[in-house]
Write a structure and sequence with these properties.
Layout (H helix, E strand, L loop, with lengths): L4 E2 L10 H7 L15 H20 L7 E4 L2 H13 L6 E5 L4 H9 L6 E5 L9 H9 L4 E3 L13 H8 L5 E5 L11 H7 L3 E5 L10 E5 L25 H38 L3 E2 L10 E5 L5 H11 L1 E2 L15 H5 L4 H4 L2 E5 L6 H25 L1
Parallel strand pairs: 1-11, 3-4, 3-5, 5-6, 6-7
Antiparallel strand pairs: 2-8, 7-8, 9-10, 10-12
């Protein structure tokens, strides 16, 4: 039976069998509402509390700083819109390579009198410190710079940027969805440098879809996006998704425990993948920057990315032409445009993101399939001309 190979782990990951095992009782025998006062409710509340402690431990935070959401997008929106609602309209500064779940709510604030200031990145995808300094001189009220980019895998020095921003006394947020489980994420250290909120998500680390969290410095006041019964310290009303939250907690515990071993193996596989891509004439984006160990974003000149994704899918390899959240857009990656990559090359971009179970053989098979697919596409193009 045909079994496609999955190389799109930045989009989502398979649920770890140990995570699923932890979740299953909360779908059946343990079905209580965590707000109920009886035994079933108390058991659910205890499970949520344990998961909150697990998530907090994974990012070096205190359990009381963890606000559960339905995912990373909601958490990012909670910071942007929730913080903006309680301060006078001013400037929101975000990096030019932010995820749409930061970029779009930031743009929406412009209708409420806010000004959006995008901070430039250099050709490797890292925030340009000169422009960041210029942006701070404009005294923004809110700042958001992601810890690791979902497409390029480029890691930002958020701690240093937060230090630069401290004199401005702005609320500083970082989207750490792609970073968690791949590199060290320490909210206590980041908080000491000036970061006030951090976004994480379950389904990027072997957990279920439908669970995320905003890690919040208690000094930061937020208006809730969803009002009701006052769940999550009044910041996110609604009956808790206990199975997903339990899975999130277990996924965090496992991801942190196994991070070093997984990262070492993925870094080796990434090196093999990049050597093979270089032999095929690929341009690898962010190559000279510090990047996530599992992520390679590249293009082969003259080859359309969407076409290549479709052809590789038929050959049995699941990869992406960019961010899953914006894959329906025909426009080139906004991250690559911000990095100064010409549109034609950017439209050929392809992302391979390795998982904890990716093997050397799979990488070799992918490189062979890629070479054969590109050869066929170029031959067809030559015949058509």
């Amino acid at each position: 039976m045909f079994a496609p190979a999955y190389l799109d782990h930045n989009a989502t990951t398979p649920v770890d069998a140990r995570v699923l095992e932890a979740m299953l009782p909360w779908f059946s025998r343990q079905y209580g509402n965590a707000s109920s006062r009886h035994e079933f409710g108390r058991a659910a509340r205890s499970a949520v509390d344990q998961a909150r402690a697990q998530v907090a431990a994974a990012v070096g935070a205190h359990a009381t700083e963890v606000v559960f959401t339905c995912g990373g997008t909601e958490a990012n929106n909670l910071f942007v819109k929730g913080a903006a609602a309680l301060v006078p309209a001013g400037i929101i500064a975000i990096s030019a390579v932010e995820h749409p779940s930061v970029r779009e709510p930031a743009r929406s604030l412009q209708r409420q009198g806010w000004r959006l200031r995008e901070i430039a990145v250099h050709a490797e995808g890292c925030v340009a410190t000169t422009d960041f300094s210029d942006a701070m001189a404009e005294r923004p009220a809110l700042i958001s710079v992601m810890l690791a980019n979902n497409e390029t895998g480029v890691i930002q020095d958020v701690a240093a940027l937060a230090e630069m921003a401290r004199p401005v006394r702005a609320w500083f947020h970082s989207d750490a969805v792609q970073a968690l489980g791949k590199i060290s994420v320490d909210f206590r250290d980041l908080n000491a440098r000036g970061v006030h909120a951090l976004t994480v998500s379950a389904h990027k680390i072997g957990g279920p879809k439908g669970a995320g969290a905003l890690i919040v410095d208690k000094r930061l006041e937020l208006a809730p996006l969803i009002s009701g019964g006052g769940h999550e310290r009044g910041l996110r009303s609604g009956t808790e998704n206990v199975p997903a939250i339990v899975g999130f907690g277990m996924a965090c515990e496992l991801a942190v425990a196994e991070k070093s071993a997984v990262a070492t193996r993925q870094l080796s596989l990434r090196g093999e993948l990049e050597r093979g891509l270089a032999e095929q004439g690929a341009v690898i984006f962010g190559l000279k920057a510090e990047r996530l160990p599992n992520t390679v974003f590249f293009a082969l000149p003259g080859i359309d990315g969407e076409t290549l994704v479709a052809k590789l899918d038929r050959a049995g390899f699941a990869v992406a032409s960019g961010a899953a959240c914006s894959s329906a857009s025909p426009e080139p990656s906004h991250a690559l445009v911000a990095m100064g990559v010409e549109s034609e090359l950017a439209r050929g971009a392809l992302r391979v993101s390795l998982g904890r179970d990716t093997t050397e053989q799979l990488v070799r098979d992918f490189l062979l399939a890629l070479a054969e697919t590109v050869f066929q596409l170029r031959r067809l193009a030559a015949l058509a001309s």
